Amino acid sequence: MLKDERFGKVTFTRRDALKIAGAAGVMAALPWSGIPKAEAAAPALKGPQAGGYYRFTIGDVEAVVISDGGLSFQPIQPTWAPEASKEELEGMLRSAFLPTDRLNLDVNTLLLNIGGELILVDSGAGGLFGPSLGKMRGRLSAAGVEPAQVTGVVLTHAHGDHFGGLLDGDGKPVFPNATYFASKTEVDFWTGSDPDFSKLRIPKDRQEQSLAAAKKYLAAIKGRLTPVMPGKKIVEGLEVVDAPGHTPGHIALLVSSGKEALLNAADTIHHHVLMFAHPDWTSAFDVDPKLGAESRRKILDRAGADGLRILGYHLPFPGIGHVRTVKGGGFEWLPEPWKWTS
User: Fold this and answer.
1) Could you read off the pLDDT of 251-293 as tens digits, one per residue?
2) Residue 329: which region, alpha, beta or left (left: phi > 0; alpha: psi -120 to 50)?
3) C-alpha angle 211-255-275 in degrees, rounded to nearest 5
4) Would you give the DSSP letter of residue 32?
5) Which helix (H) or strand (E) holds 238?
6) Candidates 3.30.70.270, 3.60.15.10, 3.30.420.140, 3.40.50.1820; CATH matching 53-335
7) Distance, CA of 70 to CA of 88 (rounded, Å)
8) Measuring CA to CA, how many Å separate 18 from each of 3, 196, 317?
9) Contact (CB, 8 A) for 334 and 324
10) What is the location of CATH 3.60.15.10 in the chain?
């Protein structure tokens, strides 16, 4: 005889249990029809991305790329690559599996723990360009650093998506304990009485807005601003590299520690496909497009020849990788594989 088994208040015999087990086996073999509709709705997976910062090292230097968000330009031309035909531009984007009706750019700020200082390179856009940007401050805190702990801020150039994060909504400094660094040529250009915008290909009203914003933000940090020159070091291991054209005093930064180095190319390169393959393709935001293209080729030549890691302010987050030369005088972007531990 099969003994009875008691489960709660219900009694089953061993024979009952065997019947249930057999039925379960049959059910397992039947096509699954899902759970009732009222219970089957999956949770929505849409929403903003979390995180937004990436830790890595350059020798003994601790570094974090902090995303300020992203920009999208639609249509692409004439703002980007006006030298290209529509067919050439779209063909190149299509071959890279990218949309052909818009150009998407990331905004990558860089935080360095170097020479006993905590130095931020560029500050993001703050509130100047809408809700898709201005995320650097919150992500800085999420990475474990508060603005008051930042001791230095380097501006690679005076465009709003680089300096907008310096002031809060009330016009107060976000980094109250920082010393600021920017190219002397850059500061003189934007604070001068008559900057030359004759080669700048954005509408007149936008030129005036850019100039007014640059004057305002540079004036706000004037008392703590230290002008720098190419070839000089801000601290040991952080050298200013001349890269004019996008703006007259646009700079890159070479971070060195031991046998490792990273070249922060800032806005020398904007797009990871177009401007690598065609360094001569420019942007309407270039104050001197020809000089900007020359600087881009010099930076890419150097990075390719020396095997330098580079960081691009507008390259796909986190914007770190290498450069390879290709036939025809162009280059190729090789993003560095993501590492979950620094």
Assistant:
1) 999 999 999 999 999 999 999 999 999 999 999 999 999 999 9
2) left
3) 55
4) P
5) strand 238-242
6) 3.60.15.10
7) 25
8) 12, 90, 58
9) yes
10) 53-335
d(CA 255, CA 121): 11
For 316, the token pair is 């796909």
Task: For residue 240, give every residue at least 6 positions away whose Cβ sits within 8 Å of its Cβ, in sequence order, or none.
Answer: 183, 228, 229, 230, 231, 232, 233, 234, 251, 253
pLDDT tens-place string over residues 131-162: 999 999 999 999 999 999 999 999 999 999 99
Taking alpha carbons only, the member of 232, 228, 227, 67 closest to residue 134 is 67
- The size of the chain, in residues, is 342
Tokens of 63: 């570094």
Tens digit of pLDDT for each residue in 55-99? 999 999 999 999 999 999 999 999 999 999 999 999 999 999 999
Query: Can the peptide bond before residue 78 be classed as cis, meaning omega within 30 degrees of 0?
Result: yes
User: Which residues lie closer than 8 Å to 77 by C-beta, 6 or more apart?
Assistant: 84, 86, 89
User: How many CB atoms sit inside 10 A of residue 64's CB?
Assistant: 21
CA distance 89 to 87: 6
Contacts of 160 (CB under 8 A, 6+ apart): 125, 128, 129, 210, 213, 214
What is d(CA 283, CA 246) in angstroms, rounded to the nearest whole number? Answer: 8
pLDDT band for position 314 (cuts 50, 70, 90): very high
Q: Are strands 10-13 and 53-58 parallel, antiparallel or unpaired?
A: unpaired
8, with CB counted inside 10 A (0-12, 13-18, 19+), is exposed
Alpha helix (H) ranges present in 173-243? 184-191, 204-220
d(CA 272, CA 155): 22
